Amino acid sequence: MSRTFPPIGRRRVLQGGTAALVVLGLLLWWLRPWAEEPPGGDIDFGTGTRAGVYYEYGKLLRHEIAEDMPALRVRLLTSAGSQENVADVATGEADFAIAAADAVATYKLGNGTGADRLRGVARLYDDYVQLVVPPDSDIRSVSDLRGKRVAIGLPDSGVRLIANGVLKAAGIDPEKDIEPSSDGIDTGPKRLGHGLDAFFWSGGLPTDGLSRLAEKSASAFRFVPIDAALVAKLHDQGGATRYYRATKMPESAYPTIQRGDSVPTLAVSNLLVTRSDVDPRLTEWLTRTVIDSRDGIGGTVHSAQLVDVRTAIYTDPLQLHAGAQRYYQSVKP
């Protein structure tokens, strides 16, 4: 026997339509900020030397930003590195910058100008300390640097901060026990063996400045190991040293140089930093671009492949910017 269903009333139709609108509204809210007009204007973005990973990452991120926010103009600022970048953001010279966690912590512990305004956007990738010497060098450990001509990075760089710490952990006074040089990754590789016995570099893997040198010859240079025992002594210095961790540089970083061998060293996380007064909506959009561009940027800057939404929120020693927090909450499973 067939059944006759009662006609749908006007009230039920209105209720169904209202429910559909609510679902649509929730969907649009979840998809924001893409449902909104992209932010525009001008921002200054701190990177590093042109031969380093910071600058290369900044260039590629600027391209991605142009795709997502075409009305936003990004000016890349070159710098000595992390320490300068942190100060630039804190004092308003830059709006965003990349900086290593130890440099951020050092600035905060030193009560630098505007330190209380610093905020985190994302944890990006790790910097690895790379102690480089000529292939025929008699330097086999950090302690062998005593009396040598050693490049310890530019004065306001993250390299200088970490190199001085490593040397002190090995019982070497950076001012008295070596002939220090301010060469960075832009000039250090050229001077290696020609005025320099060794140079420190701290950067993502691989770094173009070293990759280009490796391409010239499979015996262009070699790495000096920094073992876990020395990293433990480094931790004894206190302060920002807790952001260093003992690790190994994978054999795939510079395969023609390492020839299948990993290198004991230490690493520190890089953070994308900003200030508390930077527009939350802009920061939310930028955070999304950083996360979504991982694979695109990672094709060139291999270390960027490690950017991940699950770890990006850990920006210690900085609390998250309100806009970045809003983004992470929107994609929380």
Descriptive notes:
- The chain has 333 residues and is an alpha/beta fold.
- 37% of the residues lie in helices and 20% in strands.
- The protein is built from 13 helices and 10 strands.
- Strands 1, 2, 3, 4, 5, 6, 7, 8, 9 and 10 form a 10-stranded mixed beta sheet that branches.
- Helix 2 packs across helix 10 (280-292), helix 5 (158-169) packs across helix 8 and helix 10 packs across helix 13 (322-330).
- The longest helix is centred in the first third of the chain and has 22 residues, at 10-31.
- Mean pLDDT is 91; it is low at 1-5 and 20-30.
Task: Describe the structure using short key phrases.
333 residues; globular; alpha/beta
Strand-helix topology:
Blueprint: H1 10-31, E1 41-46, H2 53-68, E2 72-77, H3 82-90, E3 96-100, H4 101-109, E4 118-133, E5 149-151, H5 158-169, E6 179-181, H6 188-191, E7 198-203, H7 208-216, E8 222-223, H8 228-235, E9 245-249, H9 255-258, E10 263-275, H10 280-292, H11 294-298, H12 309-312, H13 322-330
Parallel strand pairs: 1-2, 1-3, 5-6, 5-7
Antiparallel strand pairs: 3-10, 4-7, 4-8, 4-10, 9-10
